[in-house]
Amino acid sequence: MITSIGNFKLDKTFIIAELSANHNHDFNIAVKTIEQAAKAGADAIKTQTYTADTITIDCDNEYFQIKQGTIWDGKTLYQLYKEAYTPWEWQPKLKEIAEKLGLVFFSSPFDFTAVDF
Q1: Which of 23, 30, 40, 104 could join 44 via S-S bond, C-beta 3.0 to 4.6 A?
Q2: Number of domain units in the chain
Q3: Do the beta carbons of residue 37 and residue 105 sit within 8 Å?
């Protein structure tokens, strides 16, 4: 038996490109990323659905500070997630663009509000 995802039969490797925060809060970069994923041969594009306030708290406590040698050092987890999230209002349009390019569009929801979205 062959399983399917959307119109894709999983009789070969199913390649998923990650959009995530790679758009730097620029819708046009998100679109270009999807276009390049399709051009590179991806079968799907995945994003993440969350907001900063649903996955952490706005806190300056040392346990919420990032200091591990990354580009986010000096920021709090809340600041990171606030900058990195994909605006929810983009998702219907990004889905439409992805599907026109033949990609499956899906998201990893991080909490119940994202599932309900």
Answers
A1: 104
A2: 2
A3: no
| Pairing between β-strand 16-18 and β-strand 44-49 as defined by DSSP bridges | parallel
- Start-to-end CA span in the chain (Å): 32
**Global pTM value:** 0.82
The residue to which tokens 């997630």 are assigned: 81
Q: Is residue 46 domain-shared with residue 63, that is, in the same domain?
A: no
For residue 93, what are the domain limits?
Answer: 13-50+85-117
**Predicted confidence (pLDDT) per residue in 10-46, tens digit:** 777 889 999 988 888 899 999 999 999 999 999 999 9
pLDDT tens across 67-114, in order?
988 888 989 999 989 988 888 899 999 999 999 999 999 998 888 887
Q: For position 1, what pLDDT does the model report?
A: 63
Residues with Cβ < 8 Å from 32, sequence gap 6 or more? none
